[in-house]
Structures are given as structure tokens and as C-alpha cells.
Design goal:
Helices cover 37% and strands 21% of the residues. It has helices spanning 4-9, 26-44; strands at 15-21, 51-57. The mean pLDDT is 85.
Length: 67
């Protein structure tokens, strides 16, 4: 939560794809498998300098962000 602003919102040279998940959610657990594969694909295509793929556990992180 403390690094959300700098890692997600303030990047100008790079886009961030963020998965907000809850560890007890069955849908989130299943989708995390695809999300990890997506991150592997981004790395394999050498797009990691343009796209950052990240996950955040919403039950453990408070993300104060103005609308």
C-alpha cells in the first residue's frame, strides 16, 4: 500500500497492469494462474521495460488514492 502511488500511478515511461486480489477468493486464486502466465509472456517478449505486471493483496494493503 505504501508504494502504490510510485509503482502504479506515477510511472510515465511504463504502464502497470495490476491485479487486485484476495487470497481467500476462489476466483482470484484461479485467475492468479493466468496472471502469472501473462507475466511470463511479457518477460519472454521483452516488454517488461514498457509494461510492469504486479499483484496486490487487498486484505493486507490499504491503498489510499484520491479518485
Amino acid at each position: 500500500g505504501k508504494t502504490f502511488q510510485s509503482l502504479v500511478m506515477e510511472r510515465e515511461e511504463e504502464h502497470t497492469m495490476l491485479l487486485m486480489k484476495q487470497s481467500t477468493c476462489g476466483h482470484c486464486k484461479r485467475f492468479s494462474i493466468f496472471w502469472n502466465e501473462f507475466q511470463t509472456l511479457i518477460d519472454a517478449l521483452n516488454w517488461s521495460s514498457v509494461i510492469s505486471v504486479a499483484k496486490i493483496e487487498v486484505t493486507k494493503n490499504d491503498v489510499p488514492h484520491p479518485s
